[in-house]
UniProtKB/TrEMBL annotation:
One of its GO terms (biological process) is folic acid biosynthetic process. One of its GO terms (molecular function) is ATP binding. This is 2-amino-4-hydroxy-6-hydroxymethyldihydropteridine diphosphokinase. Signal peptide: none annotated. Keywords: ATP-binding, Folate biosynthesis, Kinase, Nucleotide-binding, Transferase. InterPro entries: Hppk, Hppk_sf. Coiled coil: none annotated. Pathway: Cofactor biosynthesis; tetrahydrofolate biosynthesis; 2-amino-4-hydroxy-6-hydroxymethyl-7,8-dihydropteridine diphosphate from 7,8-dihydroneopterin triphosphate: step 4/4. It is an enzyme of class 2 (transferase). PANTHER family: 2-AMINO-4-HYDROXY-6-HYDROXYMETHYLDIHYDROPTERIDINE PYROPHOSPHOKINASE. SUPFAM superfamilies: 6-hydroxymethyl-7,8-dihydropterin pyrophosphokinase, HPPK. Residues 88-99 form the 7,8-dihydro-6-hydroxymethylpterin-pyrophosphokinase domain. It comes from Oceanobacillus picturae. Pfam families: HPPK.
Amino acid sequence: MNTGYIALGTNIEPRENHLKEALRLLKAHSEITIEKVSSIYETAPVGYTDQADFLNMVVHVHTSDSPVELLDKCQEIEQQLGRKRGVRFGPRTIDLDILLYNHENSKTERLIIPHPRMHQRAFVLIPLHEIAPTILIQALGKNVKELVRELPETDIKDVRIWMKSESVEE
Ligand SMILES: Nc1ncnc2c1ncn2[C@@H]1O[C@H](COP(=O)(O)OP(=O)(O)OP(=O)(O)O)[C@@H](O)[C@H]1O
Ligand SMILES: Nc1nc2c(c(=O)[nH]1)N=C(CO)CN2
């Protein structure tokens, strides 16, 4: 069985529904089991800042899918939840990014693992740290805790717990 971490983000209402629906659709695949979910965090927009705050979370999955099969399923869920592509880094009903897949380090036209921007993003690293603080990002030679320590204080302040993980799993 393979192990993966997926980051979810949404900033179009109903944001909580979009996250919960995405979790339900992931679970509906027999090739995917959700092992752990982080809390949901409310986060200030990064990159393109003239947009609403996001809800972000990270899930740990076990899967028999290959990385690209997992990406296909993530993109299908984005489509099912009505994601429309617009401004780069702009508003979205749901975004699913594959952060890590085993200790794979690979780059194809469709998929880069580890996710190339994950180490700069407090909205990814803080939820990931909650569920997997000691996991090593081999490509960077650092674990998640070390990456969180390198984040600017101002970025950390922009990420606040919005719903605790126990309530997400209900
Ligand atoms: N690890 C990855 N997880 C998800 N998509 C990836 C990954 N690596 C490369 N991609 C590619 O990135 C493309 C653009 O993805 P998307 O539109 O979700 O980007 P974005 O959310 O705007 O930006 P970001 O990737 O920085 O979160 C996808 O079509 C996919 O093929
Ligand atoms: N806070 C926050 N900012 C973002 C996010 C996101 O999920 N959360 N996603 C982006 C594009 O992937 C761009 N900016």
